[in-house]
Write a structure and sequence with these properties.
14 helices, MetI-like fold, mainly alpha, about 325 residues
Length: about 325
């Protein structure tokens, strides 16, 4: 008679659920599935089915406005993309250049500002609020503002440069060589949001670690290198992940800067991947090819996230780790 009890105990030790469940447990399970049904239905209708359908569209010659049915052409869109579409590689290169240029700029500037915000000076709370306000302004509104600031003839930026003695200030968004730096300068407008997240991470660092570093003779740089950076690494990783994804998918502000209509700026120097996708799908009307471009962007984004998740184990330190 003791044998079933012993087997049941072994199942619990191994984490194997018993085959016979009580009526309340079954009822709780049914209620759980009932509450999950709306979310599951939304996931199926608004994510899974559109994804599968978009994959099918990417293998057709579907047009945005077409009277006839789309023809299935298999992988022709992808073959054309990788073998004959020069704008595909150009837009991909510009997007990667944007990620490499703006991501470190945003992370370093946000960290430096957060170190300032972490000081206990008079009026610091007001300064934090003022600094954060631009981060909640619409990206399109910010782009319109910067269009005026970077106006080569009447803009405030060139006016200041002339007053500082610069004889021939850049034409910014009208010059292929300066268009990317101008857009990068605009991206710093929202650095306050990054600084606030850094500030939250800084204030979560235990003070006793700094006290121990002081006892060991560490100076300001030693505390920053051996205490602040390791303890802040989860925050840096979170911001890095979000910055890369945002840079890969940036569209709205740049759409305003280039004047809309599928333009890529002077000499296509601002033809980001998302702008090129918009041009192909919604301006030229090649919906099938545009969907294929979207799928390649999705794959690139997933691969980048996977790589960063692999790097997390090596470079990110958590306080709970031994």
């Amino acid at each position: 008679m003791s044998m079933p009890t012993q087997q049941f105990g072994k199942q619990e030790e191994l984490g194997v659920p018993p085959s016979v469940r009580s009526a309340p447990a079954k009822r709780e399970e049914r209620v759980a599935y009932l509450f999950l049904m709306p979310w599951s239905a939304g996931l199926l209708l608004f994510l899974a089915i559109p994804l599968v359908y978009s994959l099918y569209i990417s293998m057709t010659d579907r047009r945005l406005i077409s009277r006839g049915a789309a023809n299935f052409i298999g992988l022709e869109n992808y073959v054309y993309m990788f073998t004959r579409d020069a704008f595909f590689y150009k837009s991909l290169f510009i997007t990667i250049k944007w990620i490499v240029l703006t991501t470190p700029l945003l992370l370093i500037a946000g960290l430096l500002i957060s170190l300032l915000l972490n000081q206990k000076y008079f009026g610091m709370n007001v300064f934090r609020t003022i600094l954060y306000i631009p981060a909640v302004v619409s990206g399109v509104a910010v782009a319109v503002l910067w269009l005026q600031l970077l106006n080569p003839e009447l803009g405030a930026v060139n006016y200041v440069l002339i007053k500082l003695g610069v004889q021939n200030p850049p034409y910014w968004l009208e010059d292929p060589a300066w268009a990317m730096p101008a857009a990068a300068l605009m991206s710093l407008w929202g650095v306050g949001g990054t600084a606030i997240i850094y500030l939250a991470g800084l204030q979560n660092i235990p003070p006793h670690l700094y006290e121990a570093a002081t006892i060991d003779g560490a100076g300001a740089w030693g505390k920053f290198r051996y205490v602040t950076l390791p303890m802040l690494s989860p925050t840096i990783y979170f911001l890095l992940l979000n910055a890369v994804i945002d840079a890969l998918l940036i569209f709205g502000p740049l759409f305003v800067l280039v004047g809309g209509g599928g333009s890529g700026g002077p000499d296509n120097s601002l033809l980001f991947y998302m702008l090129y996708l918009y041009r192909v799908a919604f301006v030229q009307g090649f919906m099938g090819y545009g969907t294929a471009l979207a799928w390649i962007l999705t794959i690139i984004g997933v691969l980048m996230v996977v790589v960063m998740l692999k790097l997390e184990r090596r470079f990110v330190f958590y306080e709970s780790e031994d």
